[in-house]
Amino acid sequence: MTKLNLPVVADVAPNEPTLTSYDEQHLVTYWRLLDAEADGADWKEVVRIVLHIDPDRESTRARDAFDSHLARAKWMADQGYRHLLRGGANK
User: Fold this and answer.
1) Domain-located, residue 31
2) From 7, 11, 20, 69, which residue has the greatest number of CB atoms within 10 Å?
3) Is the pTM of this model over 0.90?
């Protein structure tokens, strides 16, 4: 966790067919990404604000993190929420 108790964002989001503890920790991150996409926000601005990565200094890392987290956010909205309703990630 960071100073503000925000979970640290991995370089790449999970790509598993089940909910992970990482997913549970990053639900707000996923919601923010989906909201930003719906608002048509620039990905570089989103990655700076939501993922805390500077896309000018780390362009490949920033793009990979953005793409994988947005894909995971969409998976959560489409399928992953069902796992939450069943009690969350297997611990």
Assistant:
1) yes
2) 69
3) no
Number of independent structural domains in the chain: 1
Q: How many other CB atoms are found less than 10 A from the CB of residue 91?
A: 6
Sign of CA dihedral 14, 19, 20, 22: positive
- H helices of 1-91, in order, are 21-25, 27-38, 43-49, 59-75, 81-85
In a domain, 2, yes or no: no
Question: At residue 28, what is the residue type?
Answer: V
Give per-residue pLDDT as tens, 11-54: 999 999 999 999 999 999 999 999 999 999 999 999 999 999 99
- Over the range 28-48, which residues count as b (16 or more CB within 10 Å of their CB) and which as e? ebbebbeebeeeeeebbebbe
Residue 35, in any domain of the structure: yes
Q: Is the Cβ–Cβ distance between 89 and 24 less than 8 Å?
A: yes
**Among candidates 83, 47, 49, 82, which has minimal Cα distance to 67?**
47
